[in-house]
Specification:
Layout: H1 2-14, H2 16-24, H3 30-54, H4 62-67, H5 70-94, H6 101-128, H7 130-156, H8 161-186
Helix pairs in contact: 1-2, 2-7, 3-5, 3-6, 5-6, 6-7, 7-8
């Protein structure tokens, strides 16, 4: 099973549309998909916290306080995962996409796993040779947008990957703006988050 997972991850990295088709062909119940996504989020937060222990963050102010609180980091990652699933489904369907909610969940959950593997490689590089970790970090940003764009294109049956990429960027900007407003409105109710956020 591990070999199958590694093979699927390799396919997703080298030929994302083929990887997306392979992922979509796997039959898993919705509960299992949520569990896979949640596990990937938890492991990602653990790795990020270990990385911070090795090389403390240089962030200042509210961001530094948030990064030093694992519960808040986990909550933020979990929220991003759920919002990404909903946005992938709802926005895609609004523009004529054919992907179902479960298929969207499947794609986003697997995306979490793939990026977790990249993050794990970055963590190993951080231990062995820090400059390489920084390079992997930059490459991972490009990988994320490239893979996610082609995953969504395949999921919803869109013809233009360029239009999908533009839609993803625009949606991310809108979602980040909306979440920032909500965080500002409700920061006084969240322990550990300064009200000035």
């Amino acid at each position: 099973m591990l070999n199958d997972m590694i093979g699927l991850a390799r396919l997703s990295l080298t030929a994302p549309r083929d990887g997306a088709r392979a992922v979509l062909s796997i039959d898993l119940p919705r509960q299992a998909l949520w569990m896979i996504g949640a596990l990937a989020v938890v492991l990602s937060v653990i790795i990020s916290q270990l990385s911070t222990l090795l090389y403390p963050s240089t962030a200042m102010g509210p961001m530094a306080e948030m990064l030093s609180n694992p519960a808040l980091v986990l909550g933020a990652h979990g929220t991003i995962f759920v919002v990404t699933v909903l946005a992938t489904y709802q926005i895609g369907r609004a523009f004529g996409g054919r992907g179902s909610f479960d298929a969207s969940l499947k794609i986003v959950a697997w995306m979490q796993v793939v990026m977790l593997l990249v993050q794990a490689a970055q963590f190993v590089a951080l231990i062995l040779f820090a400059p390489l970790a920084a390079m992997i970090g930059l490459v991972s940003i490009v990988l994320f947008f490239w893979i996610f764009t082609l995953f969504v294109t395949e999921l919803h049956g869109f013809s233009s990957a360029g239009a999908v990429f533009a839609g993803i960027v625009a949606s991310m900007i809108g979602i980040i703006f909306a979440l920032s407003i909500l965080l500002g409105l409700f920061s006084s109710f969240i322990p550990g988050v300064p009200q000035s956020v």
